[in-house]
Amino acid sequence: MSFLTGKKVVVMGVANKRSIAWGCAQALKSQGAEVIYTYQNDRMKKPLERLLESDEFVVECDVANDESIASAFETIKEYAGEIHGVVHAVAYANKEDLSGDILNISRDGYALAQDISSYSLIAVTKYAKPILAENAGIVTLSYLGAERAVPNYNMMGIAKAALESSVRYLAAELSPQKIRVNAISAGAIKTLAVTGVKDYQKLIQLSEDRTPDHIGVTIEEVGNACAFLISPLSSGIIGEVIFVDKGVHLS
């Protein structure tokens, strides 16, 4: 029997088949989970639905709006009753705040990136918590730029650092209630999000050069780690940032 048979997991952040969130969703499904997908707005709904089977459940959830998050999880409650995990794969920063100098990041740009990329995990967890089953798992996605100054990652690195700190504090608060919170620090993969980084090809090439076989990590490999962290098999892992980058972080 697959280790997520009968479980229901919410996946946030699928933009297309190259999304890390898509790799996570496919890995969850391969282990028997039913995946519930969220989308930001009507513009994002149709591209998502084209990827899915006709009977898969989708719900609108704009993580920048508390009312939208609350409504989404109320809808999910009506549909599923309870859920066994949430995959938070949502991040955003203005392009100029990624490619420019840190000193030129605007106050509004800083706040926007932190809101969408970091605070949204707290907000989503708040509204998901009432319907999370015992031994549920929450997984978010980070990157090496959270702890090192990666060229052109800039504002997103700052936001990811805040996200990783949020993981630790949420884990400490929720673990007594048997809800685990962890993060995956994935290697650079050509996703829609990464293409917003200036000279992103160099970032990906650098990651590939640092792996033992010179082949970068895949969304499938990240997805497999995500499925494990959502499952009760990872019951001993709480508040961690797990590198899934084929060793890039070692050098």
What is shown here, in short?
The protein is built from eight helices and seven strands. With 251 residues, the protein is an alpha/beta fold.
Walk me through the structure.
This protein has 251 residues and is an alpha/beta fold. It has one domain (8-246): NAD(P)-binding Rossmann-like Domain (Rossmann fold, 3-Layer(aba) Sandwich), CATH 3.40.50.720. The protein has helices at residues 20-30, 42-51, 66-80, 95-99, 107-128, 154-174, 200-210, 219-230; strands spanning 8-12, 34-39, 58-60, 83-88, 132-142, 179-186, 241-244. Helix 1 links the parallel strand 1 (8-12) and strand 2. Helix 1 crosses helix 8, helix 3 (66-80) runs parallel beside helix 5 (107-128) and helix 5 runs parallel beside helix 6. It starts with 7 loop residues before the first strand and ends in a 7-residue tail after the last strand.
How is the secondary structure organized here?
Blueprint: E1 8-12, H1 20-30, E2 34-39, H2 42-51, E3 58-60, H3 66-80, E4 83-88, H4 95-99, H5 107-128, E5 132-142, H6 154-174, E6 179-186, H7 200-210, H8 219-230, E7 241-244
Parallel strand pairs: 1-2, 1-4, 2-3, 4-5, 5-6, 6-7
Helix pairs in contact: 1-8, 3-5, 5-6
List keywords for this structure.
globular, single chain, 8 helices, 251 residues, Rossmann fold, 17% strand, alpha/beta, 7-stranded parallel sheet
The assigned structural class equals: alpha/beta
Query: How many domain modules?
Result: 1
Main beta sheet: 7 strands, parallel
Alpha-carbon distance between the two ends = 39 Å
Which CATH first-tier class would you pick?
A: Alpha Beta
CATH third-level topology: Rossmann fold
**Relative helix content:** 40-55%
Strand order of the largest sheet: 3-2-1-4-5-6-7
Overall pLDDT score: 93
Query: In the CATH hierarchy, what is the architecture at level 2?
Result: 3-Layer(aba) Sandwich
Outline the low-pLDDT stretches.
none
Number of strands: 7
SS field, number of helical segments: 8
Strand content: 15-25%
Rg over CA atoms, rounded to whole Å, is 17 Å
Could you name the CATH homologous superfamily?
NAD(P)-binding Rossmann-like Domain
Order of helices and strands: EHEHEHEHHEHEHHE
Which of globular, elongated, flat, extended, rod-shaped describes the shape? globular
